[in-house]
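Deliverable D4.2, example record:
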Amino acid sequence: MEKQIVFFSKEQQLSLPIEKIEKIIQWQQPIPIPETSSFVLGVIEHNKHVLPVIDLNARLYGTETVQHKEMKIIVVQWNDEFLGLSVESIKGIVDFGSTQFEWMDNEVTVEKNYIEKFIKTESGIVIQLNIDSLFEGNIMLDKLLRALETAKSDEEKTEVDIPINSEPVDETCQSK
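Output generated by the structure prediction step:
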């Protein structure tokens, strides 16, 4: 059995292995970032860090997700960094048996290396995504993550504890 988070994007059931997911959080409107890939919605604050949020519909299908109350953000690990994936809704955690998986060897059928495999279920086919390949080669996203990492390390370097002196400061200048 293999545990996966099953969710919806463009009304299609998609999944990710549970070990690739840090957590699922409520939707919050990201702050837009200029001059990034069209599928990057912006950033939000998550666990005291800046988290880029990706519109999965825009990345996979080229159309923006229509915002609604069921939307969630799946926090995943990609290239030693965390990303938020905006999805339409979450179906849940599902255990899939090995007989449900089908790999496609035909390159004509599956050109995209981010499709790991297909999972046959009673309610239809679930596409398991390979998060490591989903954004592979995206220079804009790499630059954004590097910029955020640099900003985070600069912030850690500049944090200084300033002792607070309980004695009043004499602001008068006396010249002799």
